[in-house]
Task: inverse folding
């Protein structure tokens, strides 16, 4: 029995459509970062790299699901900053001033640092 083909017999082709503007997810050089903490302690790190137009959130693995889930609102804030035309470092500074909340955390005042690479920030998050 023949079904008539069409979408059932053909390879599907992925066609990207426009979506929200986002910073890149990788950095090829040094990155600036800040520590994010909630009422239970450090849950992650926000990072930025202007030359690569990249920024993101790395959750601290030992902080569990709460830390991983906190990435959702942090990435939403980063997308909003990108849509407004902010450079990654400007977004990082703006997020550092955000009051945050008890669960998803806030940036720890005075925690800004520079890491030699994104891998170094990921290593911090692995602890």
Result:
């Amino acid at each position: 029995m023949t079904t008539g083909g069409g979408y059932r017999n053909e390879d599907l082709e992925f066609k990207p459509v426009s979506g929200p503007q986002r910073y890149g997810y990788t950095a090829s050089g040094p990155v600036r970062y800040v520590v994010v903490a909630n009422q239970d302690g450090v849950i992650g790190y926000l990072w930025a790299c202007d030359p690569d137009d990249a920024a993101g959130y790395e959750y601290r693995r030992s902080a569990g699901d709460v830390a991983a889930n906190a990435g959702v609102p942090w990435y939403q804030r980063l997308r909003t900053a990108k849509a407004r035309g902010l450079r990654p470092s400007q977004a990082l500074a703006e997020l550092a001033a955000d009051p945050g909340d008890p669960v998803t955390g806030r940036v720890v005042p005075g925690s800004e640092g520079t890491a030699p690479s994104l891998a170094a920030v990921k290593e911090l998050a692995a602890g």
Notes: Helices lie at 64-83, 88-96, 118-126. The two ends are 58 Å apart (CA to CA).
